[in-house]
Every structure is written in C-alpha cells, then in structure tokens.
Design goal:
This protein is mainly α. The protein is 65% helix and 5% strand. The chain has helices spanning 3-18, 21-45, 54-68, 73-85, 89-93, 99-130, 138-162, 180-211, 216-227, 231-236, 250-272, 283-304, 308-331, 343-351, 353-356, 364-383, 387-425, 442-468, 478-491, 498-501, 504-507, 511-518, 523-543, 551-557, 615-620; strands at residues 240-243, 246-249, 570-571, 574-577, 580-583, 586-589, 592-595, 598-601, 604-605. The strands form 2 sheets. Strands 3-4-5-6-7-8-9 form a 7-stranded antiparallel sheet, with no helix packed on it. A two-stranded antiparallel sheet has the order 1-2. Helix 3 (54-68) packs antiparallel against helix 6, helix 13 packs parallel to helix 17 (387-425) and helix 18 packs antiparallel against helix 19.
C-alpha cells in the first residue's frame, strides 16, 4: 500500500478508537436496520401485501449507500489541509515520494474509508434482497458505480484542500473558520449536500407529477444519459440509455464519466504540490479533453430524446455551462510555481492551442477558446447555424472572464512587486520569499457579478411596475429603470441565450420575448450590450496586465548591488562551496570543518575511522545506556 495512504488510514483508525466513533457507526447501522427488521417481521407474520413493498425498501437502502458515500469528503478534503495546519506538508513535499504518489496515497485512503462505509451497509442490502427486493445482478453494478463516484468526489475534495484557502470574514450568524481543514470541509460538504438534496426532492416529486398526468417515463428515459452522473438519479433511471443510437447501461456510463472526471482533478491536485519554480504542466487540461468529449456526447444523447425546443435548450445550455465553468476553474486559480502573468502569454495562448494547455492563469483564455471550438458541433446540431452566433457570444464571455481572472491574479503579483520595491527603497534587505500558497480571487469576483446581474433586473422591473401603477411619480424615471434592467441582463454570463430563448420558432413560445418587451427591451439589443461589455472587459483585462518586475533594475534603482550570477550563496554568514559551507577557509562536511580532507569532530580530525576524542573527556561523562545518541 502507498505509505501515505497507510499513514492516513492509521490516523483515521486511531481517531475512531479514541473518539468512540466506531461504536457510534455500528449503532447507526443498527438503527438503520431496525426498520428493516420490523418490515421483515411484517412480511413473515402478517397477512396482506407486505411483500410488494420489498423493491422500494431495497432501493431505499441502495440510496442510503449512495448518501453514505459522502464519508469520503472528510479524509479527502482534510488530506492536505490538515497537513498544512500541522505544518507537516513541507515534510511530505520534500520526501522521496513524488507528487503523484502523495496525491494517489491520499486518494487511496479516502476511497478505502468510503468502501468500508458501503461494506457496513451491505448486510442491510442483503436482507432486503432476501425479502425479494431486487435483482442479484444489480449489486455488483451498483457497487462499481458507487466506487467510481467515490473516486471522483474524493478527487474533487483533494483539489479543494490542495491549495491554501482564504479565511472568510464573519457574516452575521455564520461563523468564520480559520483553519484550512475547516474551510475545506465547509466547501466540499456544502457542495455535496446541495447536489444530494436536489435529486432527492426531484425523486420525491415524481409520484405527484405522475398523478397530474405528466409523462414521467419518457422524461426519465430522456435524462438517463446525464442522470448517470449522479448515483441517486442513476438509481431512478436504472436500465439502458440511448447513446449514439446504441443502448448502454446507465451504471457503465456513470463509471466511465466519473473516472474521466477524477483524472483531471487528480492532475490538478498534483500540480498544486509541485515545488516553487517548476514549469507548469499540461496534464490537467489535457485530461479535461476526454471528459469534455464525453459530456458533449451525453448532452447530445439527452437532446436527441427530447422534442425540438428541448434539444435547442440542452445543446446551447450545455455549452454555456461548460464554458462558464472552464473560465472560472482555469482563469482565477494561481498556478503554484507557474511563470508570472504576462500580456504576451495571454495573446500567444489565444492563437496557439498547444500552449493553451499549460496550467497557468494567463493560458486560460486560449484554453476556453479551444473548448468553444469543441462545443461548436453540439450547438450546430441542436440549434442549427443560427446557434453559431450564440456560441460566439458565449465564447467571448468565457474568454473575457478567463482574462479577468488572469488580470486579478496578476494584480496580486503586482502587490508583491510593490512591496519588494518599497523594501528596497527603505534600505531593508529585499528578499523574494516563496509564497505559502497563491490564493484565488474567484469567489469574491463571481459573488459580486452574481449580485449585480441578479439584483438590477428585479429592481428595474419593480420601478417600471410602480411607475405604471401605484406610484405614477416614478413614471419619468422609466428610462433609468429600463437601463438598470438592460445592464443587469447584459452583465449576466448567460445573456447570450436570450435570442435563442426568444425565438418562438425554435422554442414554440414567445413568452421570453413578450416578457422582455414588457420591460422595454429586445433580446437582440440585450445581446449587443452583452457583447460590448464583455468585449471591453477582455480588452481592458489584457491591456492592463503590467510587465513583471525586473528585480535587478529595482535593486539598482534602490542602490543595492545584486550578487553576480556565479556567486556562491551564503548560509548563516558563511559561503557555500559545492553545496557545503566553508568554515575557517575550509569546506565543511555535515556542518563540521575539514582539515586535510578529513572532517573535524570535537576539534580532532577523523582519519579512516571514528573521531579521535580525548580520553579525559570520556571520564568526565556520566555513564549511560548505549544507544544511537551516545554512539
């Protein structure tokens, strides 16, 4: 087993033993098994149709196994965060283990914890199967899907904790967390709970939708390809899905996509562990391409099972979500050890797809443009050639956001440069320290963008409504309220979809166009404002990136002479020759001076043997047990 995984599993087991968590875990399993035992007694002892509920009980236990898979979040999210809190991460980074061994060891420990959790619930699933609840062939396929989902979720948690996180300020009753482990757990568990509650409520609404006459069966068949991405949805649409005209088991789709999703995430976590100054790798973005291709195929398979309006929405919406996520994921994350953000690198990355694969924020605009080209076949297939204009607007939006992210990362580097210049002018010893971990400005930027783009349209619409009804005095301000609506809609990253959504021929309804008309807007006008805004944002972001600091010129301007390139470094005031410090004019070995080629220990040279020590000194030493220390 990987030594890092073995260490983490021993730590996890020790925590279970000390905190009596193992007893609580077994008790929870017993509590979950009590209703199953009561149901088994009802099947055996009471007359009636109790046995007909066995399939539902079987599926409920299978769903509990999927929810218990969230147990991988704790060991995976805190894998590197706890090491950073305990100040032991540096020891792992400089150990003989490579970055891939570190990341795969942490992943292995988290996946083993998830497998143990699933194994604890297998007796309950077996009891439900004995009662006639399901098919035996379902069990291995379900366990494979859960294992693949655990791998991808653990990889996501590893990436979240691989880089240093910003400590949020206290917001009302929300308690601000300061440790890296707490912040990593907040981010990962919050996302996990959100993505688990949505399908749970969706499944609970299915009986009510069926009672209202909704075509639940065809809808589930249509979303089966994309539903395979979530274990709970895959459990609902279990069976075969049509992909490229061929039936493919849902569990097989889920296993393949989850493994493809885990690969770029793991590569990204590896990039975060590389030493400072190492060149940026290309593996994270290169491994994204198979994942993107698989997701586009699944989106096309989903759209093919829907009527024309649904196909248009799925094809264009999938491209919009993919491009927005890629821009946020690649442009706003500083690459540890990557070169400084430069304007030239941004421009070259836009025209050189091979360079756009580098894991650096200034290559993100080129990478997003490459993904936009990959989305073109899906958009043309779903929305026709008219969808190319929408795709061009989406690509401009994503490229502009990626460029803004690179500019924000460059701003942090410029602050470091200004601090360096100020220290040099003040006469202090200017040093460039290795950053503990670059921090991403993504969260605050997208929070502000979302607030502005989501709040301005309702405010403008409310002003127009009051001006036409209850508050006629606001009537003269109607142009201002219309401008607020237009500005908010133009700032929204998904504003490029408005012309498509307003096309009555494509969607079969003109409700979006009539809604915009009530606000005094046209979809084409909003799209024009959207393109103009993000076009200006792209130009401003690229043009405002400054050149990196010339350290030699800054030192010369401050009157500090930089050491020559071939000068020997100095350690604790002593020069270093060939990696060893010089003591009294002679190089040292293991911190001791050398006389005539032999190291000196306690003032005596060592010649082909142990050091020569005065015998009187040995008499003064108290006796003690032999050991490595006295030796």
């Amino acid at each position: 087993m990987n030594p890092v995984a073995w260490k983490d599993l021993l730590t996890h087991a020790r925590g279970l033993q000390q905190g009596s968590a193992g007893v609580r875990f077994v008790g929870l399993t017993v509590v979950l098994g009590a209703p199953l035992l009561a149901y088994a007694w009802c099947v055996v002892s009471l007359p009636g149709g109790w046995g007909r509920a066995a399939p539902a009980v079987f599926m409920v236990i299978a769903a509990l196994m999927a929810l218990f898979g969230l147990s991988v979040a704790v060991p995976a999210a805190t894998a590197f965060a706890l090491e950073r809190d305990r100040e032991t991460l540096e020891g792992l980074v400089v150990s003989p283990l490579g970055p891939w061994q570190l990341v795969l060891g942490k992943l292995q420990a988290a996946v083993v914890v998830g497998a143990v959790t699933h194994a604890a619930l297998l007796p309950l699933l077996a009891a439900a199967f004995v009662l006639g609840g399901g098919d035996l062939a379902f069990v291995p396929a379900w366990l494979l899907l859960l294992g693949a989902a655990n791998v991808s979720f653990a990889a996501f948690c590893l990436v979240t904790g691989a880089r240093r996180l910003d400590a949020p300020s206290k917001l009302g009753w929300v308690r601000a967390q300061s440790t890296q482990a707490q912040m990593a757990l907040q981010g990962t568990l919050g996302v996990a709970v959100l993505f688990s509650l949505v399908p749970i409520y969706g499944v609970l609404l299915l009986p009510f939708a069926a009672a209202q006459g909704a075509p639940v069966g065809p809808i589930l068949d249509a979303i089966a390809p994309l539903g395979a991405l979530h274990p709970l949805v895959a459990l609902t649409v279990w069976g075969d899905a049509r992909v490229l005209g061929a039936p493919v088991p849902v569990w097989a789709i889920g296993v393949v996509v989850h493994l493809l999703l885990a690969l770029p995430l793991l590569a990204d976590a590896v990039e975060a562990q590389r030493s400072e100054g190492s060149p940026p790798g290309r593996l994270p973005r290169l491994l994204c391409l198979p994942l993107v291709a698989a997701l586009l195929v699944l989106a096309a398979a989903t759209g093919a099972a829907l009527p024309d309006p649904g196909r248009v929405v799925v094809s264009v919406g999938a491209a919009a979500i993919l491009l927005l996520f890629a821009a946020a994921r690649t442009g706003f994350v500083p690459a540890h050890g990557a070169p400084r953000v430069e304007r030239r690198r941004v421009v070259v990355g836009l025209v050189r797809p091979d360079l756009a694969l580098e894991s650096a924020p200034d290559r993100a605009p080129g990478f997003v443009a490459l993904l936009a080209l990959a989305c073109a076949p899906l958009v043309v297939w779903g929305a026709g050639r008219d969808g190319l204009g929408t795709l061009a607007a989406l690509a401009l939006m994503a490229v502009a956001l990626a460029a803004v992210g690179a500019r924000l990362v460059a701003r942090g580097q410029e602050q470091e440069d200004r601090a360096f210049e100020a220290a040099a002018r003040a006469g202090a010893a200017p040093t460039i320290e290795a950053a503990e971990a670059p921090r991403s400005p993504r969260g605050r930027f997208f929070l502000r963008l979302a607030l502005v783009s989501l709040l301005l349209p309702p405010v403008g619409a409310a002003g127009l409504s009051f001006g036409q009804g209850a508050a006629p005095a606001l009537g003269p301000l109607a142009p201002a309220f219309t401008a607020l609506c237009a500005a908010g809609l133009a700032l929204n990253p998904f504003a490029a979809l408005l012309p498509t959504l307003g096309d009555a021929a494509a969607l079969g309804t003109d409700a979006p166009r009539r809604l915009l008309g009530a606000l005094g807007l046209e979809p084409e006008a909003v799209l024009g404002l959207h393109v103009a805004f993000y076009g200006l944002a792209l130009v401003a972001a690229v043009a405002s990136i400054r050149r990196p600091l010339d350290v030699a010129a800054a030192l010369a301007a401050a009157g500090v002479t930089a050491p020559p390139a071939d000068a020997s470094p100095v350690v604790d005031g002593s020069p270093v020759v060939d990696g060893s410090p010089v003591v009294d004019g002679s190089p040292a070995v293991d911190g001791s001076p050398v006389v005539d080629g032999s190291p000196v220990v306690d003032g005596s040279p060592v010649i082909d043997g142990p050091p020569v020590v005065d015998a009187s000194r040995l008499a003064d030493e108290p006796p003690g047990p032999p050991g490595p220390g006295r030796a």
